[in-house]
Amino acid sequence: SACELIEQLEEWREEFGDAGPFASDEFFYLAGMRPPDARYYCGYPQLENGIGLSRFFLDALSKKRETKDLDEKTLIITTPMGKWVLGDLDLRDAKIEVLRNSLFGKYVTVCGLLPGKDIVRTLAMRNDVNRALVSAVAVSGDSFIDGMTSKEVSHLTGMDIEIVEANPNSLFQSLGGAR
Hints:
- Strand 1 (74-78), helix 4 and strand 2 (95-98) form a beta-alpha-beta unit.
- The protein is 35% helix and 11% strand.
- It has helices at residues 2-16, 25-30, 53-63, 80-86, 116-123, 150-157, 168-175; strands at residues 74-78, 95-98, 131-135, 160-164.
């Protein structure tokens, strides 16, 4: 159905042009497609709604591909869709943990709706890391969608929780070594 929706939106875009409508990144993920190129998003008018955020992230990647030695005690926390985007990065040696959303259900795969309690549950089972990186799109202020703060997650897990801006440069910088 995601493919059908993308096709329908394409027909409407022929009529409306740069005004959209734009399929959200999640529809491309569900359809098993890569995010379309930047031209599709016509200047990203709905970026704050997550429409085009994946492509915006990946285009920032093409500007800087320098990688450092990865910190083996650091874990990247993400969602199925987050891993879909990270798949284009050269992170072969990075530890990545994909979380399922217990608050909204398994079909909600975006990082922006990641509950803090899911991070706590996951990190409680890990003893091979001492720091976790979480995308800034998962927090508003310092709170996750369930109201838990990164400080609470850190306290409950005994690990450093680092909120990382949603761009490759920030991610690579954070992976470069422990604080």
